[in-house]
Amino acid sequence: MGIYLFQIINGIGLGMIYFLVAVGLSITLGLLGFVNFAHGMFYLLGAYLTFQIVSWGGSFWAAAVAAPLVVAVLAFTLERAILVRTYKLPHKYQIVATLGIVLIAQEAVVMLWGPLGNGVSVPDSLGGVVSLGNFQYPLYRVFVVAVAAVLAIALWLLLERTTFGALVRAGSESSEMVKLLGVDVRTLTSLTFALGGMIAAVAGVLIAPIRGADPSMSGEALGIAFVVVIIGGMGSFTGSIVAGILVGVVQSVMSTLWSEGAQLMVYVVMTLVLIAAPRGILGRA
Question: According to the model, what pLDDT value does residue 240 have?
């Protein structure tokens, strides 16, 4: 029983990482109806920037601040310079454009840091363990859950209790109506896109000491992010949290019961949710 409890706790931590990756994608889909296959790139860059800053002699804490800010600026610039030109095009063109961007980013990562993964050390202050009953759990993973929970609360307050959040929610319903109210929708969408990229970069920073940074992590993150969005419901913040934890727990527990099918079971859960609730757990019409 202890091993399953350990895996459930481990899955919650993994699920919170999935939530951070997926929530920006969910918000962007809800506001713009834009299919962004380059979203995993922000997660990838967050991890690699963390590795680079630590390699230069900087601390993990400096990387945790600098990497998301750099990625946010990059996301803002990318949206303004390239992606805005695809908003009115069919989704197939958005998919091709964003896939092209992520492939360029992956090749650039391979050229700069090599094709193999690069490890990032856990900060010394978080290198211990926490006793949970009869077993011990890494302190850093507890830290990840705590940080993700704080960010989830902060994001919920931003989206539900601020003017910016009200405009984002209104824009997801009718961008034309928001324009008629005198709001600069272009700036709103750019800031929302940058926010999503920054959150995904935070997930990359947090995951770097756990799994390191490697070129393939972008595609892995993107696949899981879409699963979380589908299960939770497009544009649903709370749905992203619930779905992220559900996917993390299923994947973690199944890695003990049936390691070869752990990834498969994630998609089985997604299929069952789609059959029972096509809009997702907390999706809207």
Answer: 86
pLDDT top residue among 184 and 265? 265
Q: Is 2 within 8 Å of 233 (Cβ atoms)?
A: no
Nearest to 80 by CA among 235, 188, 200: 188
Contacts 24+ apart (CB under 8 A), 155-160: 155/23, 155/199, 155/237, 156/237, 156/238, 159/27, 159/237, 160/237
Residue ranges of E strands in 40-173: 129-132, 135-138
Summarize pLDDT for 19-36 with one digit per residue, the tens. 998 888 877 776 666 778
Q: Has residue 267 been placed in a domain?
A: no
Boundaries of domain holding 78: 2-215
* Mean of per-residue pLDDT scores for the chain: 85
Answer whether residue 202 is part of any domain.
Answer: yes
Domains: count for the chain: 1
pTM score, two decimals? 0.90
123 found inside a domain = yes
Do 55 and 233 contact (CB within 8 A), yes or no? Answer: no
